[in-house]
Specification:
By secondary structure, the chain is an alpha+beta fold. It contains 5 helices and 4 strands. The longest helix is centred in the C-terminal third of the chain and has 9 residues. It binds iron/sulfur cluster.
Length: 97
């Protein structure tokens, strides 16, 4: 079991989830400091397509990240809506690159 960040994160990339994760398993292709240097309302334009991902091998399934996400982008893997099911593999693939 793991939590998954769906593509609903794209355009928001708030990153509040990173601060509450107890095992530091939420990462993205842009360093957190660089992301946060850009105002939240500008991130979608500055970083097209950018989203964060959860490492399924490290996630302890606590749910803290989902409660913090302002875009409602994070789900337990069993609960990911049908339109976002491909995001489960995309999250895992990010950590195997
Ligand atoms: Fe981190 Fe908990 Fe979210 Fe897993 S469910 S990514 S451990 S905050």
């Amino acid at each position: 079991m793991t939590y998954v960040i769906t593509q609903k994160c794209v355009g928001t990339c708030d990153s509040a989830c990173v601060d509450v994760c107890p095992c530091d398993c939420i990462l993205g292709p842009v360093a957190l400091g660089d992301l946060r240097a850009v105002p939240a309302r500008e991130r979608g334009q500055r970083f097209p397509g950018l989203q964060l991902f959860i490492d399924p091998d490290e996630c302890v399934d606590c749910g803290a990240c989902a409660a913090e996400c302002p875009a409602d982008a994070i789900y337990r893997d069993d609960d990911v809506p049908a339109a976002y099911r491909d995001d489960i593999a995309r999250n895992a693939a990010f950590f195997t690159r």
